[in-house]
Prior knowledge:
Chain A is mainly alpha-helical. Chain A is built from eleven helices and no strands. Chain A has helices at 2-10, 12-28, 30-59, 65-94, 96-101, 108-134, 146-170, 174-185, 202-206, 210-221, 228-259. The radius of gyration of chain A is 19 Å and the shape is globular. Chain B is built from eleven helices and 18 strands. Chain B has helices at residues 24-37, 44-47, 75-82, 115-125, 130-144, 159-171, 189-204, 216-222, 240-253, 321-325, 406-418; strands at 4-16, 48-60, 64-68, 90-95, 99-102, 177-180, 208-212, 225-230, 233-239, 263-271, 279-281, 285-294, 298-308, 314-319, 328-330, 335-343, 349-359, 364-378. In chain B, strand 8 (225-230) and strand 9 form a beta hairpin. In chain B, helix 4 crosses helix 6 and helix 5 crosses helix 6. The longest helix of chain B is centred in the middle third of the chain and has 16 residues, at 189-204. Classes of the chains: A mainly alpha, B alpha/beta. The interface between A and B is medium-sized, with 29 and 32 residues.
Amino acid sequence: MRAELAELYRYRELLVMLALRDIKVRYKQSLMGFFWAILMPVLIVCAGMVVRYAYAVASNKPLSLIDISSLAVKSVLWAFLVSSIRFSCQSLTSNNNLVTKVYFPKEILPISAVLSQLFDLFVVGCVLIVLLAIIQHEISLELLWGGPLLTITIMLAIGIGLLVATGSLFFRDVRYIVEALLTFAIFFTPVFYDVSMFGQKGHWLLLNPVAPLMEGFASILRGQTPDWPWLSYSFAFAVTVIVAGYGLLKKAEPAFAETI
Amino acid sequence: MSDIAVRVDHVSKRFRRGQLHDSLRDLIPAVMGRILGGGRGRSRAEREFWALRDVSFEVGRGEAFGIIGPNGAGKSTMLKLLSRLMKPTLGSIEVNGSFSALIELGAGFHGDLTGRENIYLYGAILGMTRREITGKLDQIVDFAGLEEFVDTPVKRYSSGMYARLGFSVAAHVDPDVLLVDEILSVGDALFQQKCVEHMRSIIRGGATVLFVSHNLKTVAEFCSRSLLLDHGRAIVVDSTPDVITRYMTLLRQHRAVSQDRPVVITAVHVRDAAGPCRRFQSGQKAWVDIEVVAREHTDRSAVVLYLRDDSHYVLFVTSTERLGHGNFSLDVGDAFCCTFELELNLGPGIFHVSVNLFRYDNEEWYDNWEAAETIYVWADRDTSGPVNCFPTVIRQEIHVSGQPAAHRDTLHRATRQIL
């Protein structure tokens, strides 16, 4: 394992280069590239607004500005997670000429897919921060929790990415299963809603490892610290998924060239 | 570091053939079926086949080593094992020093990126650092001859330009051990010449080079030692001329005789004055004995003899009829024998002797034996090309610059006129 990690480190430039390739290619199609980065998050935010508005009307609780900003932040991160998983899932199969013809540590492909999505997140994040500044969102020390929360989200994206990329290389339909799961996973994750809305039963929702992260983002925007135990659960889950995904990919790697 | 650059130790590679389940939709019913229905289907051993069996060889540091063999011999598997894309089922492969493979040129290119961006990308894929690539960028672009197009997206490149850029990047990786596939056939003749020169300089620079090729000429030109693979087994590891001789014997055995021919070429043998021979000195005489047996009555046939070069390009054709011996007719069971005497004014390299049975008046083919024999020609002087004009330099002088030399002017004028 150690030698493999050392090799991954040696190939770090390739990791960046492949991520840059994806970004360049996406943004080279001129303005559409930029809109593409914005489109998906904007759509999710709008959808969330509609849902949230309906809830506000039904429960007679008016929508607060903080609800909207937390909804926006969560949606943007959710969009990142979904597209990271989607792109890393295809990363090995769509680069099959590289996978079968040239030797390099193959985990680089799914990881670079996540990295290139991270760039989009950065672009959208900038837009979002400007918007939050305009509505004069309160600034508190708790916002610093955003760093660890984002890190765990990225780890989760990489871990799941490694798993599904390897899976879809061996079984073509893994990709469709992943697509289906990604489409409906938003209903099981507190992106458009808060866990607190479910009262006592909300804990069941937190078993979804993404839920404590989303809740965490919502908390820090309200100036509260995230829920520690649940956050460690997410962290432990992310570490497990990364170790499992990496282990699986490394174990299956010698069979890649025989499979495609 | 040891003196061994590559050590392949009792390597075997097994593949499973037959249906592979590449989707869960197929896999799950299959697994369920196997559990419920017991061991239906063919047994495991039947579905396996060994692409390589117990292959061992060593390549010394700085050596150029060839791997040859007919189709399906296991060359590509060996290539993938050496480049670590697959793991051997048994045995081990040890490579000392950095390793790079000149195969599948431009595998990492992206059409929307410019030549320059692709150089960085492909370079990184091949294991170069950004700094190394920056240092070699001009060389790479210059070698590919694409100075004007570095900032054009490669999707606008012609296929030749694409391949040239790919080769150029790959050729500048500078590893300790280099693996070369059939890639010296990229681009036009001029670029190929450049590639060959470049390979020479890499070998001179002390790199260990492994050639995996059908092209015996390249192997003969570069490699002192070679390995012959056939059906996954190492037939012989020896000096290249000996290995090539062995390969030719092997090729002869692979001929499948079809049953529906009215006349069949049953034997083609090449010999020198002493007896059977496949290695000739340029200019030496060779005799080709041919035997033909008729299965049906045939009229007016002639035996045609071809010489082809290593890329199977026809260099020379003659026939019994063209040499003034008329045609012959055979009855069922009759045999016809003839011998051609040839003066092998050929350049150093590999040549295939092919034999045809042809009827000139209605242009009908009776039988055809491609590469019935393959011969290896060596020359006592350093020339290249399919023919040997037995050159000698009879005059060579230096005209010191600054001195009026009417001679040089005329030479220049003459050159200009020719160009």
